[in-house]
Design a protein that fits this description.
- The chain is α/β, with parallel strands linked by helices.
- It is built from 15 helices and 10 strands.
- The strands form 3 sheets. A 4-stranded mixed beta sheet has the order 3-4-1-5, with helices on one face. A 4-stranded mixed beta sheet has the order 2-6-8-7. The protein has a two-stranded antiparallel ribbon with strand order 9-10.
Length: about 350
């Protein structure tokens, strides 16, 4: 994914925490706790403390944050309180709000959904896709299409009730860390430049060769621009304590791009490049290399020893070892005139979590 920033003034690149974005991340963690094993204690305690009425209402609207995050939860101009974020959300035009609320689950074309309040085909398609996700979402979509103003007010009350039930304490606990992280990234940008700031945000972020585009290493493929009219121009980077392993990007055309990134933590593994993860999966998928890995996991071996043990030629063993080494799964060392090979057990052990982080990123 790319964000065009060619000619964008540095002051239009902003780092700021958002209470609404953090609430969205927290609600996602509650609805998909398996994505966030490090938050197990928090998700368990919070879910058990929810009153039944609030839990039911959260389930009714969870398509806004379960599979991915709705754009309405990622403000381009974050406020300092949840009330400020919600006030700005209230200012969004009705049609824009409805499209943003429905498109992630009721449209196959992110950023290109027609207005279902006016377009009969889009309205029917939204109903059909909602029905496929169950009666709860189907009913919600019907209410949104029939009376969007009432649903918007209902959502605001839901978020305010979340604040009262659990989020006020949660935000009080994490806001200092998020503000400090945002200040640090802004200092890096100011003193060392955008490339260093992006690297500090995530290894999955970089500048392209011409330094005119931000590149986000995700499975999704799309592009957007930060070169928008008036005060909408720019990119907003929003830190989250609840985000890992997700790196969310708002890239709807005409909207200010937002990157919602997890704050660094010593216990979190660094994300691997998607290309490297794919190369490693392909390397261990070959049956011959699987057998070689079985030997290399138990100790060091020379090429000749592997050839004799597996009854294949030394050149063939060398070719397979080269693939494993290129994928970063092999450690080699020289002992006299012999070269000893051994499987990098740490890299292999992380392969499953690297794959999961990559597809969830």
């Amino acid at each position: 994914m790319t964000i065009d920033i060619a000619g964008l003034p540095p002051e239009r690149i902003v780092f700021a925490p958002s209470p609404l974005a953090e609430l969205g991340a927290a609600l996602h963690a509650l609805s998909e706790p398996a994505h966030h094993p490090g938050l197990h204690n928090w998700t368990t305690a919070t879910a058990c403390s929810l009153k039944p009425d609030l839990a039911d209402r959260l389930q009714e609207a969870d398509f806004l944050w379960r599979t991915t995050r709705s754009d309405i939860l990622l403000p381009g101009t974050p406020g300092s309180t949840l009330a400020e974020d919600l006030d700005r959300l209230d200012q969004m035009p009705q049609e824009q709000f409805v499209i943003a609320a429905l498109e992630i689950s009721c449209s196959a074309d992110y950023g290109r959904m027609a207005n279902p309040l006016r377009d009969a085909y889009e309205r029917d398609r939204a109903r059909e896709r909602a029905a496929a996700r169950g009666p709860c979402q189907a009913a919600f979509v019907e209410r949104m299409l029939a009376d969007p103003a009432t649903v918007r007010a209902w959502l605001r009350r839901l978020f305010e009730d979340c604040e009262q039930a659990f989020f006020a304490d949660t935000w009080q606990r994490v806001r200092v860390q998020l503000a400090a992280d945002a200040r640090h990234k802004a200092d890096v940008l100011r003193h060392k430049g955008l490339a260093e700031a992006l690297a500090a945000v995530s290894p999955a972020l970089s500048l392209d060769a011409d330094r005119g585009r931000i590149v986000v290493d995700k499975l999704a493929t799309s592009q957007t621009t930060a070169l928008l009219p008036n005060d909408r121009a720019g990119v907003t980077f929003v830190p989250t304590a609840f985000g890992w392993p997700h790196l969310m990007v708002l890239y709807t055309p005409g909207w200010r791009p937002v990157v919602h990134y997890p704050v660094a933590s010593p216990e979190l593994p660094r994300p691997q490049a998607l290309e490297l993860v794919q190369r490693r999966l392909e390397a261990v998928a070959h049956p011959v290399r699987m057998n070689l890995c079985r030997s290399l996991a138990r100790g060091t071996h020379t090429t000749g020893e592997l050839a004799a043990a597996h009854r294949i030629t030394s050149p063939e063993v060398s070719r397979h070892l080269a693939v494993l080494k290129k994928a970063g799964l092999l450690a080699t060392r020289r002992r006299g005139r012999y070269v000893l090979h051994q499987l990098d057990l740490t890299a292999v052990a992380r392969l499953g979590s690297d794959f999961l982080e990559s597809v969830l990123r």
